[in-house]
Amino acid sequence: MPSPSRRTGSWLVLALLAVGVAMVVVTAPPPAEDRAQAIGSQVRCPVCQGEAIVDSPSETARNMMDLVRARIDEGLTDQQIIDELLTSYGGSLLLNPPARGATLWLWLAPLVALGVGTAMVARRFHAAPADLLPAAAAPPVSPTLSRRWIWGAAVLVLGGAVAVATVGQFQQARPEDQSLSGVAGEDFDPDSVSNETLEAVVAANADNPAINGMRLALANRYFEEGNYQQAFGHYEIVLDNQPAPNEAANAFTRLGWMVFDGNGEADLGIELIDRGLELVPNDAFAIYLKGRIIWCGQGDADTAADLFSSVLSSTGLDAEIQDRVETDLAAAAAGEDCQ
């Protein structure tokens, strides 16, 4: 009959072979389209409401998926492709948290606990293989070894509990405390600080709904600067965090203009602006931008002229905007091409 040590060695060899086969299966490169689908499921469409680009029918999402497939054909890694997408379309579009920084514990804690627990249980079997000895020769169970068995099992259970608790921490509801970290009192003026400072304050309060107004101010600043990549991500987050109607209308209007001005998607741009107008029907700026898209993107000068006329009937227009609308109205009414 094989000795206990030889039998234990056989089991170890079989376990190592099983692990090796599993690693080969897991690490085998998937087909190109499977890779594209997997990458696309991790990146959020910048012009949609929380959809991954693999699921979105928008032209922007299709362009992003085409880029993913092209980069796969060129031999880039998944991370290189994701990095390019985030750089090209905004930095706040990753749906799954990367395994670094605060999220690293989420991925490593269960593995560490599992490894420690397994080692303790294996040591107990190695030290006292009583079930492999004749009954008469079986030694009494050592209290120390029993404690090792209990501690090993406890660590295994703890590993699962840590995983569940850590995931719950990432999915927990917003805290009751709505104060803003890093904001110097209620009189804090976003216009008085740089973009970098605003980014730091917003990042420090990312899960606090009270930061929505400040994030919107930052997004509007990027919008005015023509920095659509940075503005996109902030507007999306504003819409994802239960904004007030005027905040949502602001975000929808500017997202609508950006998808047209940046990507040429006239229909989607009008649809987004219309969603904003449903919330704030008389928003002169939204009506003006809608007229611009209809004129420049759809070639309908007559409808655009009507919209420009309604804007001019509004009160309290900024003088610069009024001059621009009057100029556009005269050109559209004359049947001229978009300027």
Notable characteristics:
single chain, 339 residues, mainly alpha, Helicase, Ruva Protein, domain 3, Serine Threonine Protein Phosphatase 5, Tetratricopeptide repeat, 3 domains, 14 helices, 0% strand, globular
Unreliable stretches? 21-27, 97-103, 128-139, 161-187
Overall mean pLDDT = 73
Number of helices: 14
* Overall strand count: 0
Estimate what percentage of residues fall within beta strands: under 5%
Q: Which structural class best describes the helix and strand composition?
A: mainly alpha
For the termini, the CA-CA separation is: 93 Å
Order of helices and strands: HHHHHHHHHHHHHH
The CATH superfamily of the largest domain is Tetratricopeptide repeat domain
Shape: globular
Description:
- The protein has three domains: 4-89, Helicase, Ruva Protein, domain 3 (Orthogonal Bundle); 101-171; 199-333, Tetratricopeptide repeat domain (Serine Threonine Protein Phosphatase 5, Tetratricopeptide repeat, Alpha Horseshoe), CATH 1.25.40.
- 66% of the residues lie in helices and 0% in strands.
- The chain is built from 14 helices and no strands.
- The radius of gyration is 30 Å and the shape is globular.
- The termini are far apart.
- 28% of the residues are buried.
What's this, in brief?
The protein has helices at about 5-25, 30-40, 60-75, 80-90, 105-125, 145-170, 195-205, 210-225, 230-240, 245-265, 265-280, 285-300, 300-310, 320-335. It is mostly helical and about 350 residues long. Helix 11 (about 265-280) runs antiparallel to helix 12.
